[in-house]
Design goal:
This protein is an alpha/beta fold and 407 residues long. It is 28% helix and 19% strand. It has ten helices and 16 strands. The protein has helices spanning 20-28, 102-115, 135-142, 144-158, 172-190, 204-210, 258-268, 309-312, 350-362, 386-400, and strands spanning 39-40, 43-44, 56-61, 81-89, 95-96, 119-125, 162-165, 194-199, 216-219, 275-280, 282-287, 303-308, 321-324, 329-334, 343-346, 367-371. The strands form three sheets. An eight-stranded parallel barrel has the order 3-4-6-7-8-9-10-16, surrounded by six helices. It has a five-stranded antiparallel sheet with strand order 12-11-15-14-13. A two-stranded antiparallel ribbon has the order 1-2. It is globular and about 60 Å long. 49% of the residues are buried.
Length: 407
Protein backbone atom coordinates (compact mmCIF):
# COMPACT_ATOMS: atom_id res chain seq x y z
CA UNK A 1 0.00 0.00 0.00
CA UNK A 2 1.53 3.25 -1.17
CA UNK A 3 0.59 6.72 -2.26
CA UNK A 4 -1.69 6.99 -5.21
CA UNK A 5 -0.45 9.20 -8.01
CA UNK A 6 -3.08 11.83 -7.22
CA UNK A 7 -2.61 11.83 -3.44
CA UNK A 8 -1.25 14.96 -1.78
CA UNK A 9 2.31 14.73 -0.50
CA UNK A 10 2.37 13.15 2.93
CA UNK A 11 -0.99 11.46 2.49
CA UNK A 12 -0.92 7.65 2.57
CA UNK A 13 -3.65 5.49 1.13
CA UNK A 14 -4.71 1.90 1.68
CA UNK A 15 -4.39 0.93 -1.96
CA UNK A 16 -3.31 -2.58 -2.97
CA UNK A 17 -0.19 -1.97 -5.02
CA UNK A 18 1.17 -3.67 -8.10
CA UNK A 19 4.13 -4.84 -6.06
CA UNK A 20 3.96 -6.45 -2.63
CA UNK A 21 0.24 -6.14 -1.95
CA UNK A 22 -0.60 -7.34 -5.45
CA UNK A 23 1.53 -10.41 -4.96
CA UNK A 24 -0.13 -11.10 -1.61
CA UNK A 25 -3.58 -10.86 -3.09
CA UNK A 26 -2.62 -13.00 -6.05
CA UNK A 27 -1.82 -15.85 -3.70
CA UNK A 28 -5.47 -16.04 -2.72
CA UNK A 29 -7.29 -14.50 -5.66
CA UNK A 30 -7.83 -16.45 -8.80
CA UNK A 31 -5.00 -14.84 -10.61
CA UNK A 32 -3.05 -15.64 -13.66
CA UNK A 33 -2.37 -14.49 -11.76
CA UNK A 34 4.22 15.73 26.30
CA UNK A 35 0.54 16.48 26.87
CA UNK A 36 -2.02 16.02 29.60
CA UNK A 37 -5.29 14.17 29.04
CA UNK A 38 -7.95 16.09 27.16
CA UNK A 39 -9.63 18.82 29.18
CA UNK A 40 -12.96 20.56 28.78
CA UNK A 41 -13.39 23.91 30.50
CA UNK A 42 -10.33 23.16 32.63
CA UNK A 43 -11.68 19.82 33.86
CA UNK A 44 -10.29 16.45 32.78
CA UNK A 45 -12.79 14.80 30.46
CA UNK A 46 -14.43 11.71 31.91
CA UNK A 47 -13.75 8.33 30.36
CA UNK A 48 -16.53 6.93 28.19
CA UNK A 49 -19.17 4.81 29.87
CA UNK A 50 -18.76 1.01 29.63
CA UNK A 51 -19.60 -0.21 26.16
CA UNK A 52 -23.05 -1.67 25.66
CA UNK A 53 -23.01 -1.91 21.88
CA UNK A 54 -22.73 -5.27 20.21
CA UNK A 55 -21.47 -3.69 17.03
CA UNK A 56 -18.42 -1.48 17.03
CA UNK A 57 -18.31 1.30 14.48
CA UNK A 58 -14.65 2.26 14.23
CA UNK A 59 -13.55 5.23 12.15
CA UNK A 60 -9.95 6.07 11.27
CA UNK A 61 -9.27 9.79 11.48
CA UNK A 62 -6.31 11.48 9.82
CA UNK A 63 -5.16 15.12 9.88
CA UNK A 64 -5.06 15.23 6.10
CA UNK A 65 -7.70 15.19 3.42
CA UNK A 66 -8.91 17.13 0.42
CA UNK A 67 -10.32 18.91 2.35
CA UNK A 68 -9.42 17.49 5.76
CA UNK A 69 -12.20 16.72 8.21
CA UNK A 70 -11.84 18.83 11.38
CA UNK A 71 -12.35 16.71 14.47
CA UNK A 72 -14.97 19.23 15.58
CA UNK A 73 -17.09 18.34 12.50
CA UNK A 74 -17.14 14.53 12.92
CA UNK A 75 -20.62 13.01 12.89
CA UNK A 76 -19.97 11.29 16.20
CA UNK A 77 -23.31 9.49 16.33
CA UNK A 78 -22.00 7.21 13.59
CA UNK A 79 -19.11 5.93 15.72
CA UNK A 80 -18.33 3.92 18.84
CA UNK A 81 -14.55 4.27 18.41
CA UNK A 82 -12.22 6.66 16.58
CA UNK A 83 -8.62 5.78 15.74
CA UNK A 84 -5.98 8.48 15.37
CA UNK A 85 -3.88 7.36 12.40
CA UNK A 86 -1.02 7.18 13.44
CA UNK A 87 1.88 7.36 15.90
CA UNK A 88 4.65 6.14 13.60
CA UNK A 89 7.16 3.60 14.89
CA UNK A 90 10.86 4.17 14.33
CA UNK A 91 13.32 1.23 14.20
CA UNK A 92 14.73 2.09 17.65
CA UNK A 93 11.28 1.84 19.31
CA UNK A 94 10.68 5.58 19.57
CA UNK A 95 7.51 7.15 18.18
CA UNK A 96 7.19 9.91 15.59
CA UNK A 97 4.28 12.11 16.70
CA UNK A 98 4.96 14.97 14.27
CA UNK A 99 4.47 13.51 10.78
CA UNK A 100 0.80 12.77 11.49
CA UNK A 101 0.49 15.76 13.86
CA UNK A 102 -0.46 13.66 16.88
CA UNK A 103 0.99 16.18 19.32
CA UNK A 104 -1.11 19.00 17.87
CA UNK A 105 -4.37 17.30 16.96
CA UNK A 106 -4.89 14.46 19.46
CA UNK A 107 -6.15 16.56 22.41
CA UNK A 108 -9.04 17.98 20.39
CA UNK A 109 -9.93 14.60 18.87
CA UNK A 110 -9.96 12.93 22.29
CA UNK A 111 -12.03 15.72 23.82
CA UNK A 112 -14.59 15.47 21.01
CA UNK A 113 -14.77 11.70 21.35
CA UNK A 114 -15.21 11.85 25.11
CA UNK A 115 -17.95 14.47 24.84
CA UNK A 116 -19.86 12.09 22.57
CA UNK A 117 -19.24 8.85 24.51
CA UNK A 118 -16.88 7.55 21.82
CA UNK A 119 -13.62 5.80 22.64
CA UNK A 120 -10.43 7.27 21.16
CA UNK A 121 -7.67 4.85 20.23
CA UNK A 122 -4.03 5.57 19.42
CA UNK A 123 -3.23 4.10 16.04
CA UNK A 124 0.28 2.65 15.88
CA UNK A 125 1.84 1.97 12.49
CA UNK A 126 4.85 2.58 10.30
CA UNK A 127 5.48 4.99 7.45
CA UNK A 128 5.14 2.33 4.76
CA UNK A 129 4.17 4.88 2.10
CA UNK A 130 7.67 6.38 2.47
CA UNK A 131 9.41 3.01 2.17
CA UNK A 132 9.69 2.34 5.90
CA UNK A 133 8.36 -1.20 5.73
CA UNK A 134 10.53 -2.83 8.41
CA UNK A 135 10.41 -0.25 11.23
CA UNK A 136 7.82 -2.19 13.23
CA UNK A 137 9.66 -5.47 12.83
CA UNK A 138 12.96 -3.92 13.89
CA UNK A 139 11.45 -2.07 16.85
CA UNK A 140 9.27 -4.94 18.08
CA UNK A 141 11.98 -7.52 17.42
CA UNK A 142 14.98 -5.78 19.01
CA UNK A 143 13.52 -3.00 21.19
CA UNK A 144 10.12 -4.32 22.20
CA UNK A 145 10.19 -3.13 25.82
CA UNK A 146 11.17 0.39 24.68
CA UNK A 147 8.42 0.40 22.06
CA UNK A 148 5.75 -0.82 24.49
CA UNK A 149 6.83 1.70 27.13
CA UNK A 150 6.62 4.52 24.59
CA UNK A 151 3.17 3.46 23.37
CA UNK A 152 1.79 3.18 26.90
CA UNK A 153 3.34 6.54 27.81
CA UNK A 154 1.50 8.26 24.94
CA UNK A 155 -1.76 6.47 25.76
CA UNK A 156 -1.57 7.63 29.38
CA UNK A 157 -0.19 11.10 28.67
CA UNK A 158 -2.91 12.04 26.20
CA UNK A 159 -5.72 10.00 27.69
CA UNK A 160 -6.35 7.54 24.84
CA UNK A 161 -8.72 4.66 25.60
CA UNK A 162 -6.56 2.04 23.94
CA UNK A 163 -4.39 1.11 20.98
CA UNK A 164 -5.04 0.03 17.41
CA UNK A 165 -2.14 -1.77 15.72
CA UNK A 166 -1.79 -1.36 11.96
CA UNK A 167 1.20 -3.43 10.83
CA UNK A 168 1.48 -2.92 7.08
CA UNK A 169 2.95 -4.63 5.20
CA UNK A 170 3.11 -7.74 7.38
CA UNK A 171 5.31 -10.70 6.45
CA UNK A 172 3.59 -13.27 8.65
CA UNK A 173 6.26 -15.92 8.12
CA UNK A 174 9.05 -13.60 9.18
CA UNK A 175 7.33 -11.22 11.60
CA UNK A 176 4.22 -13.03 12.80
CA UNK A 177 5.83 -14.28 16.01
CA UNK A 178 7.15 -10.78 16.74
CA UNK A 179 3.69 -9.27 16.31
CA UNK A 180 2.23 -11.85 18.70
CA UNK A 181 4.81 -10.98 21.37
CA UNK A 182 4.16 -7.28 20.92
CA UNK A 183 0.40 -7.83 21.19
CA UNK A 184 0.84 -9.92 24.34
CA UNK A 185 2.94 -7.21 25.99
CA UNK A 186 0.50 -4.47 24.99
CA UNK A 187 -2.44 -6.49 26.28
CA UNK A 188 -0.71 -6.92 29.64
CA UNK A 189 0.18 -3.25 29.97
CA UNK A 190 -3.15 -1.87 28.72
CA UNK A 191 -5.20 -3.80 31.27
CA UNK A 192 -8.86 -3.07 30.59
CA UNK A 193 -8.18 -0.59 27.78
CA UNK A 194 -8.94 -1.54 24.20
CA UNK A 195 -6.50 -3.34 21.90
CA UNK A 196 -7.48 -3.80 18.27
CA UNK A 197 -5.73 -4.46 14.97
CA UNK A 198 -6.20 -3.98 11.24
CA UNK A 199 -5.71 -7.10 9.09
CA UNK A 200 -5.01 -7.54 5.39
CA UNK A 201 -7.55 -10.00 3.97
CA UNK A 202 -4.94 -12.43 2.66
CA UNK A 203 -3.53 -12.92 6.20
CA UNK A 204 -6.62 -14.67 7.53
CA UNK A 205 -4.77 -17.88 8.45
CA UNK A 206 -2.32 -15.93 10.61
CA UNK A 207 -5.06 -14.02 12.42
CA UNK A 208 -6.73 -17.31 13.23
CA UNK A 209 -3.77 -17.94 15.54
CA UNK A 210 -3.11 -14.33 16.61
CA UNK A 211 -6.49 -12.85 17.55
CA UNK A 212 -6.54 -13.75 21.26
CA UNK A 213 -5.01 -10.55 22.74
CA UNK A 214 -7.22 -8.30 20.61
CA UNK A 215 -10.71 -7.04 21.35
CA UNK A 216 -11.32 -6.68 17.63
CA UNK A 217 -9.58 -7.66 14.41
CA UNK A 218 -10.63 -5.45 11.50
CA UNK A 219 -10.36 -7.12 8.10
CA UNK A 220 -9.57 -4.58 5.40
CA UNK A 221 -12.30 -5.74 3.04
CA UNK A 222 -11.59 -3.17 0.35
CA UNK A 223 -8.92 -2.63 -2.31
CA UNK A 224 -10.30 -5.87 -3.79
CA UNK A 225 -9.96 -4.57 -7.34
CA UNK A 226 -6.81 -4.20 -9.42
CA UNK A 227 -4.92 -5.20 -12.53
CA UNK A 228 -3.38 -8.25 -10.83
CA UNK A 229 -6.47 -10.01 -12.19
CA UNK A 230 -7.25 -9.94 -15.92
CA UNK A 231 -10.78 -8.73 -15.26
CA UNK A 232 -12.45 -5.76 -13.59
CA UNK A 233 -14.07 -6.05 -10.18
CA UNK A 234 -15.51 -4.00 -7.35
CA UNK A 235 -13.55 -2.22 -4.60
CA UNK A 236 -15.59 -3.72 -1.72
CA UNK A 237 -18.32 -6.08 -2.93
CA UNK A 238 -20.47 -7.64 -0.25
CA UNK A 239 -20.71 -10.93 -2.12
CA UNK A 240 -18.83 -12.78 -4.84
CA UNK A 241 -20.02 -16.01 -6.42
CA UNK A 242 -18.33 -18.27 -8.92
CA UNK A 243 -21.49 -18.28 -11.02
CA UNK A 244 -21.12 -14.52 -11.39
CA UNK A 245 -18.23 -15.16 -13.76
CA UNK A 246 -19.55 -17.17 -16.71
CA UNK A 247 -17.56 -15.26 -19.31
CA UNK A 248 -14.38 -14.00 -17.70
CA UNK A 249 -12.29 -16.28 -15.51
CA UNK A 250 -12.99 -20.02 -15.26
CA UNK A 251 -16.39 -21.07 -13.97
CA UNK A 252 -14.93 -22.19 -10.62
CA UNK A 253 -13.18 -18.87 -10.03
CA UNK A 254 -13.66 -16.98 -6.78
CA UNK A 255 -12.86 -13.32 -6.25
CA UNK A 256 -12.68 -11.50 -2.95
CA UNK A 257 -15.68 -10.00 -1.21
CA UNK A 258 -16.69 -9.04 2.32
CA UNK A 259 -18.54 -12.34 2.67
CA UNK A 260 -15.61 -14.42 1.44
CA UNK A 261 -13.26 -12.65 3.87
CA UNK A 262 -15.64 -13.30 6.76
CA UNK A 263 -15.85 -16.97 5.82
CA UNK A 264 -12.07 -17.32 5.64
CA UNK A 265 -11.32 -15.42 8.85
CA UNK A 266 -13.92 -17.29 10.89
CA UNK A 267 -12.99 -20.69 9.49
CA UNK A 268 -9.37 -19.91 10.36
CA UNK A 269 -10.42 -19.41 13.98
CA UNK A 270 -11.20 -15.71 14.43
CA UNK A 271 -14.44 -15.54 16.47
CA UNK A 272 -17.16 -13.77 14.53
CA UNK A 273 -17.85 -11.53 17.55
CA UNK A 274 -14.27 -10.22 17.38
CA UNK A 275 -14.23 -9.62 13.63
CA UNK A 276 -14.90 -6.24 12.01
CA UNK A 277 -15.37 -5.79 8.27
CA UNK A 278 -14.01 -2.79 6.41
CA UNK A 279 -16.12 -0.02 4.91
CA UNK A 280 -14.27 2.25 2.46
CA UNK A 281 -14.97 5.93 2.11
CA UNK A 282 -13.18 5.78 -1.24
CA UNK A 283 -13.44 4.02 -4.56
CA UNK A 284 -11.61 3.49 -7.84
CA UNK A 285 -11.75 4.77 -11.38
CA UNK A 286 -10.90 2.35 -14.19
CA UNK A 287 -10.07 3.91 -17.55
CA UNK A 288 -9.28 2.20 -20.84
CA UNK A 289 -8.58 -1.44 -21.48
CA UNK A 290 -12.05 -1.99 -22.92
CA UNK A 291 -13.62 -2.10 -19.46
CA UNK A 292 -17.19 -0.78 -19.22
CA UNK A 293 -18.20 -2.34 -15.88
CA UNK A 294 -17.36 -5.05 -13.35
CA UNK A 295 -16.41 -8.62 -14.28
CA UNK A 296 -15.01 -7.85 -17.70
CA UNK A 297 -11.77 -9.18 -19.08
CA UNK A 298 -9.62 -6.24 -20.14
CA UNK A 299 -7.86 -6.28 -23.49
CA UNK A 300 -5.00 -3.95 -22.50
CA UNK A 301 -3.93 -2.86 -19.05
CA UNK A 302 -6.34 -0.21 -17.77
CA UNK A 303 -5.37 2.88 -15.83
CA UNK A 304 -6.62 2.70 -12.24
CA UNK A 305 -6.63 5.37 -9.58
CA UNK A 306 -8.04 5.55 -6.07
CA UNK A 307 -10.38 8.44 -5.29
CA UNK A 308 -11.99 9.54 -2.01
CA UNK A 309 -15.76 9.55 -2.03
CA UNK A 310 -15.70 13.35 -1.84
CA UNK A 311 -13.97 13.38 -5.27
CA UNK A 312 -16.15 10.64 -6.74
CA UNK A 313 -19.32 12.62 -6.06
CA UNK A 314 -18.20 15.15 -8.66
CA UNK A 315 -17.77 12.43 -11.28
CA UNK A 316 -20.85 10.25 -10.80
CA UNK A 317 -24.54 11.07 -10.91
CA UNK A 318 -27.89 9.24 -10.68
CA UNK A 319 -28.01 9.21 -14.47
CA UNK A 320 -25.00 6.89 -14.68
CA UNK A 321 -25.42 5.12 -11.33
CA UNK A 322 -25.96 1.36 -11.57
CA UNK A 323 -26.44 -1.46 -9.06
CA UNK A 324 -24.84 -4.91 -9.06
CA UNK A 325 -27.58 -7.04 -7.56
CA UNK A 326 -25.22 -9.98 -6.95
CA UNK A 327 -22.32 -8.09 -5.39
CA UNK A 328 -24.72 -5.63 -3.65
CA UNK A 329 -22.70 -2.53 -4.48
CA UNK A 330 -23.13 0.39 -6.89
CA UNK A 331 -20.98 1.33 -9.83
CA UNK A 332 -21.07 3.95 -12.57
CA UNK A 333 -19.97 4.04 -16.19
CA UNK A 334 -19.16 7.04 -18.37
CA UNK A 335 -19.49 5.92 -21.97
CA UNK A 336 -17.69 7.22 -25.03
CA UNK A 337 -17.29 6.33 -28.67
CA UNK A 338 -13.55 6.20 -27.95
CA UNK A 339 -12.76 3.09 -25.85
CA UNK A 340 -9.80 4.79 -24.19
CA UNK A 341 -12.16 7.38 -22.71
CA UNK A 342 -14.70 4.97 -21.18
CA UNK A 343 -14.53 5.05 -17.39
CA UNK A 344 -15.83 2.58 -14.80
CA UNK A 345 -16.19 3.71 -11.17
CA UNK A 346 -16.48 1.33 -8.21
CA UNK A 347 -17.40 2.70 -4.78
CA UNK A 348 -19.85 2.43 -1.88
CA UNK A 349 -22.91 4.56 -1.30
CA UNK A 350 -25.54 4.86 1.44
CA UNK A 351 -27.41 1.76 0.27
CA UNK A 352 -24.40 -0.56 0.03
CA UNK A 353 -23.07 0.63 3.38
CA UNK A 354 -26.44 0.00 5.03
CA UNK A 355 -26.40 -3.52 3.58
CA UNK A 356 -22.91 -4.15 4.96
CA UNK A 357 -24.07 -3.10 8.42
CA UNK A 358 -27.11 -5.37 8.22
CA UNK A 359 -24.82 -8.15 7.06
CA UNK A 360 -22.59 -7.62 10.13
CA UNK A 361 -25.67 -7.91 12.30
CA UNK A 362 -26.93 -11.05 10.58
CA UNK A 363 -23.53 -12.73 10.88
CA UNK A 364 -23.21 -11.58 14.53
CA UNK A 365 -19.87 -9.93 13.79
CA UNK A 366 -17.98 -7.54 16.04
CA UNK A 367 -18.86 -4.60 13.81
CA UNK A 368 -17.16 -2.62 11.08
CA UNK A 369 -14.36 -0.12 10.60
CA UNK A 370 -14.11 2.82 8.23
CA UNK A 371 -11.12 3.94 6.19
CA UNK A 372 -11.09 6.88 6.42
CA UNK A 373 -13.37 9.60 7.74
CA UNK A 374 -12.17 12.57 5.67
CA UNK A 375 -13.06 10.75 2.44
CA UNK A 376 -16.74 11.39 3.14
CA UNK A 377 -16.45 15.07 4.08
CA UNK A 378 -18.44 17.32 1.75
CA UNK A 379 -18.54 20.78 3.37
CA UNK A 380 -21.45 22.88 2.23
CA UNK A 381 -23.74 19.91 1.63
CA UNK A 382 -26.43 18.52 3.93
CA UNK A 383 -25.53 16.15 5.40
CA UNK A 384 -21.86 17.00 4.99
CA UNK A 385 -20.85 13.39 5.73
CA UNK A 386 -23.49 11.36 3.88
CA UNK A 387 -21.88 7.94 4.29
CA UNK A 388 -21.17 8.36 8.00
CA UNK A 389 -24.69 9.73 8.40
CA UNK A 390 -26.04 6.56 6.77
CA UNK A 391 -24.06 4.53 9.31
CA UNK A 392 -25.49 6.64 12.12
CA UNK A 393 -29.00 5.98 10.87
CA UNK A 394 -28.40 2.23 10.68
CA UNK A 395 -26.91 2.23 14.17
CA UNK A 396 -30.03 3.98 15.44
CA UNK A 397 -32.17 1.31 13.79
CA UNK A 398 -30.09 -1.47 15.32
CA UNK A 399 -30.24 0.12 18.77
CA UNK A 400 -34.00 0.69 18.60
CA UNK A 401 -34.47 -2.95 17.62
CA UNK A 402 -32.56 -4.05 20.74
CA UNK A 403 -29.63 -5.50 18.83
CA UNK A 404 -27.20 -5.28 21.74
CA UNK A 405 -25.04 -7.72 23.63
CA UNK A 406 -21.87 -7.83 25.66
CA UNK A 407 -18.96 -6.13 23.84
Amino acid sequence: MVFTSNAPAGRPSRIATRTLAALLICVFYVCPTPFAPAYRNGVAAAAPAPETETFWSVGYWTPWGAPPLPSSRITWKGLTHVVYAWALVRPDGSLDLETQRVSREAPALIAGARANNVKALLGVGQQYWAGQTTSLAEAAGSHRSILVNNIIDIVNRYGFDGVDLDWEPLDTARDGAILKKLASDLRSRLGGKTLSAAAIVTDYQFWGTAHAPFDRVSAMTYDLTGVWNPFSWHNAPLYSRSDSFPKSPPADATVWSVDLAVERFTRAGVPAARLNVGIPFFGYEWAGGGVTGPNQRWISEPRIRQLPYQSLTGLISPAIDRWDSSARVPYSVITSTRPSEVRFFTYDNEQSIAEKIRYAQSRRLGGWMIWELSGDYLPGQTPDQPLLNAIANERQTLNSSGAKAKP
